Amino acid sequence: MSQDPIQALIAQFSRFAVENNISQKDWEMAASEFGVHSTATNIERFYRSWGFGDDDQQVTATRFLRTVADDDEEIAIGIMKRVYAMADPDPDVFDQYPSLEALTEDNRKIPAFSVNSKSFLDLNNVPGTFYPELVENIDRCYRLGIYDATLVLTRKLFENLLIDILRARYGKQKIGTFYIPDNKRFQNFDKLINNFENDLDDFQHLSGGLDDDFLEELDAFRQDANAEAHSIEINITEDQIEEYRKQAQHASKVLFRVRSNV
Fold first, then answer.
1. pLDDT score of 184
2. pTM recorded for the entire structure
3. Which helix (H) or strand (E) element contains residue 179?
4. pLDDT at 49
5. Which of 46, 72, 153, 210 could serve as 60's disulfide partner, Cβ 3.0–4.6 Å?
6. Where are the domains of the chain?
7. Residue 227 — pLDDT band, cuts 50, 70, 90?
C-alpha cells in the first residue's frame, strides 16, 4: 500500500475507533499481539487518552498507527484489522469510511506474538456458552502478556460463577443474595462474596477446598483485580502474575465444581 492510501486509512480508522468506543484494553491487546506494546507505551498519552475517553483519542491513535506504519506498514494494517474485527461494524460503515474496506481483505497474514505458551486457567470441558469464550479471552490476554486485563477478566469470571451458584441454589426465594430487583442489576462482587460466605454451610458439601481460607483468597483476588482495573500504570511483574495464576487456577476449579453440583 502506498504512502497516501495508508495515511488515509489511518486517518479514517482513528475516527472510526473513537465512534465505536474502542477501549484501552482493546488497543493493549492488539499492540501486544503484534509486538508493538512498547511503541504504544512510548506514544505520549496514547493509552491514557483511551483509558479516560479524552478528547485527543483520535490524535493519539493516529500518532501511534503512523509511528508503527513508518516502521512496518503490514503490522499497522494488522493492528487495524484486529481492532476493526473487535468493533464488529455494520456493513454500511464503508459509506462513511471507504478506506476501511481494505481491512476486510484476507491477503495480508500477520503473525501473532506470544509472551507465554501456557494458559492462565488450565481448565478442561468448561461448561455453557458464555464461560468457554471468557476463559479463552483470559488465556489469550495472559499469553500476550496483558496482565491487568487478565486479572480483570478473571474477576469477571469469578463474579459470574458466584451469581450462577447463588441463583441455582436459591432462585427467587433469596433473590437478594445475587440480584437487586429495585435497581435491576446484579450484586457487586464484594456483596456476592459476603452472601456466599454467610451461607457457606449450604455449599461446602459440593466441593472440597471450600472454606474460610478460600473466601479470603477470593476476596484478595477481587481487591487486586479492582486495583488493576483502576490503575493508570501497568506494573504486574512476572512473579506476581504467576502467583495470581496459582490462585486463579484453584479458585476457578472449586467454583466450577460447585456450579456443576449445586
1. 86
2. 0.61
3. strand 179-180
4. 92
5. 46
6. 3-104, 130-261
7. low
